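call fold(seq) -> tokens
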Amino acid sequence: MFSHIILWCSVLIALLSTGTHGASNVCICRCCYLGNCEPVNNATFFVQDCEECSTQRCLEAMNLEGARRKTAAVLEQVEEEISEGEKDEDAIDACIIISLLERSSCGNDASKCKVTTTFNAFCVDRNWAFGRFSSFVFIAVTGFLIVFGLFKDHIPALHSFNLRYFNY
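ret:
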């Protein structure tokens, strides 16, 4: 009995907690290639308000200048410029490489080039009301069904139901 109380208290605390970060909104930076948008590695950050999540902040978070240097080193196959740690941890997304190549080949006059990549920012509120409510309802309904399953044999009105469907 005591373990059930501990379990329900931990579930209640988990539902009511706001997380370790002060901000509940997550800004996800995405790179879109021909309309297919994928999140960019290491370009997700917390914001206080979704208004702070912008494409400009995503471009700053993606560090395109660093990606440009790494792309140039890879294309020139100068392996000594990229250390082994950078290869594993800071892998460059293919979408960013394509975007950098498009921008460098177009030069200053981007109107003459067909650009297939775009960057955009997507804001997610982790504490949205329906998300918390649906989690609580799921846990409550599951708990009710477990308790009902344990006690259904002891309810006289369900005796014929138990004999018909649960006669093992």
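The helical segments are 2-16, 55-62, 64-76, 84-89, 94-106, 129-151, 159-165.
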